Amino acid sequence: MADWPTPSAEPGFSFGRFRFFPARQLLLEGETPVRLGSRALEILAALVERPGELVSKDELVTRVWPNTIVEESNLKVNVAALRRALGEGRLGLRYIATVSGRGYRFVAPVELSEQRSSPALRNTAPAHPHNLPMALTRTIGRADTIDALLKQLPRRRFVTIVGLGGVGKTTVALAAAEALIAAYEHGISFVDLAPLQDPHLVVSAVASALRLTIHSGDAIPALIAYLRDRQTLVVLDSCEHVIDAAASLAEQIISGAPAVHILATSREPLRVKGEQVHRLSPLTSPPSWSRLTAVDALRFTAIQLFVDRAAESLGGFELSDADAPIVAEICHKLEGIALAIELAATRIDAFGLRQLSALLEDRFRLLRQGRRTALARHRTLAAALDWSYEFLPEDERAILRRLSVFAGTFTLESASAVVSGAENALFDVVYSLGNLVAKSLVSADVSGAVANYRLLETTRAYALQKLEENGERERFVRRHAEHYRDLFERAQTEWEATPTAAWVAKYGGEIDDVRNALSWAFSEGGDLSIGVTLTVASITLWMCLSLLNECRRYTERALDALSQMPSESGRREMQLRWAHAASLASTRGAVSEAQASWSAALESAESLDDPEFQLRALHGLFAHRINFGDCRSAIGLAERFCALAAARSDLSDQLNGERMLGTAQHYLGDQTSARTHIERMLGSFTTRAHHPNAIRFQYSQGATAFALFAHILWLQGFPDQAIQAAQNGVKAAQETNHAPTLCGILALFACPLALYVGDLGLAEHFLAALKKGVAEHAFTIYNAPCEGWQGVILVERGDDAGLPLLRNALSQLEELGLRTRYYPIYLGSLAQGLGAAGHFTEAYSAIDTALAWINKHEEYWCAAELLRIKGELFRLEGSAAAAEDHYRQALEWARRQDALSWELRGATSLAQLWHQNGRIEEAEKLLSSVYSRFSEGFETADLMTARALSDTFRNSLSGEAKPLLRTRRLSQ
Question: Up-side HSE of residue 692: CA atoms within 13 Å toward CB?
Answer without folding.
Answer: 21
